[in-house]
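Fold it.
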Amino acid sequence: MKKLIFVVFLLLFTQSVVARSMDDRVSKIEETWAETTASRPAAERKNVFLQLVDDITEVVTEFPSKAEPLILKSAILLTMAEDASSFVALSLVKQAKSLLAKAIDINPKAREGSALVTMGVLYYKVPGWPIAFGDDKEAENYLLKALEVNPDGVASNYFYAEFLLEQGNNEQAISYLNKAIDAKIDPKNTAFKIKARQKAKAKAVLDSLS
């Protein structure tokens, strides 16, 4: 029994160290991605993103049962898609969609349901068949699941409001915009600036509807 307890303790200790190692690596890659996205023009950031994809792919390979590296890799690919030609962009988006699907299967609650939010956004932003996979019903399905996971989040509320606005449901969207504006965000969070911009956009959209 003593040996068993020792083995379990060792296993738990090793897992916590591994988790910290993964979190540290993901955080560093995310910081570089966020800073590059915000401060560098498209022409200068391609090589940085390519290196980040290699870096996060290593983490994905080392931690196949974790959703967080998959989510970050999908985010980097989607940022690259913004700078790419239509053909290349669609390929990157499809790769990101596949990664998000895996992340959702592993842990839909990871990163406050961000994989669910992003999947929902993809479904209402990309063209439908035969060009791509766009589907408003699927979009709403994922966005509502994201709200179940994180009912008070900035992104979950803002992007569902945006979806409602695109559907012409302005009155229904207002309550979600208000929730996005009132959402609390931790300034220590790596994604603080991104979430702050989402809050500002929600405020601007709400003002335009008034």
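The mean pLDDT is 85.
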